[in-house]
Amino acid sequence: MLKTWWLVFARMNGETVGIVGNQPLVAAGCLDINASVKGARFVRFCDSFNIPLIILEDVPGFLPGTQQEHGGIIKHGAKLLYALAEATVPKLTVITRKAYGGAYVVMNSKHIRADINYAWPSSEIAVMGSKGAVSIICRGDPDLAKREEEYIDTFANPFPTAKKGFVDDVIMPRDTRKRLCADLKWLRNKSQKNPWKKHGNIPL
């Protein structure tokens, strides 16, 4: 049974939406093979029936380990990336806590044509967690705790990402539903076409 994902249908302003969310209480919300495949199928289903997508992101990365590598985590993770990149329905993302590494890009980032990306003030958008990053960058430094605080203040928050335009706004959690409903109304008549081709070449 898949427990690292929430894949549900919900109603926002009386209209159906598909919600994709990480479950941080199981495997810290990591993306694994099963999660990637199931998520890709859900996204493709929503796109087929013109159902807007909301991504609730709290992901520390792809699940590490030889079992995942031998099972083809890169190939299966690419299915989710492809599905979200190709989808032409309204796509909204809310980063609630962690957004690390390649999993951040896969989970409907601006780099793959997300329409609106929000982040809560508590979110961290980075290549990796602050502790791991500092242990590499400041190896041998006698005061790693201080360096970690400096790293968090400088990088491990949503504001540097927002400054670069990869996050549209940093919002308070209490305002999330109101903002999403307004954006869905604004994007109701969204029209986006992919470059013409007979069909795409999703990684199978």
Would you give an account of this structure?
The protein is built from 8 helices and 7 strands. The protein has helices at 33-48, 66-71, 73-86, 101-106, 130-137, 144-154, 159-163, 176-186, and strands at residues 5-12, 15-22, 53-59, 91-100, 116-119, 124-126, 169-170. Strands 1, 2, 3, 4, 5, 6 and 7 form a 7-stranded mixed sheet that branches. Helix 1 runs parallel beside helix 3. The longest helix is centred in the N-terminal third of the chain and has 16 residues, at 33-48. The two termini are 22 Å apart.
Keywords:
single chain; 204 residues; alpha/beta; 8 helices; 7 strands; globular
* Radius of gyration based on Cα positions: 18 Å
The strand count comes to: 7
N-to-C span: 22 Å
Q: Helix- and strand-based class?
A: alpha/beta
Number of helices: 8
The average pLDDT score comes to 91
Helix content: 25-40%
Largest sheet: 7 strands, mixed
Uncertain runs: none
Strand content: 15-25%
Shape verdict: globular
Short précis:
It contains 8 helices and 7 strands.
What does the secondary structure layout of this molecule look like, with pairings?
Blueprint lengths: L4 E8 L2 E8 L10 H16 L4 E7 L6 H6 L1 H14 L4 E10 H6 L9 E4 L4 E3 L3 H8 L6 H11 L4 H5 L5 E2 L5 H11 L18
Parallel strand pairs: 2-3, 3-4, 4-5, 4-6, 5-7
Antiparallel strand pairs: 1-2
Helix pairs in contact: 1-3, 5-6
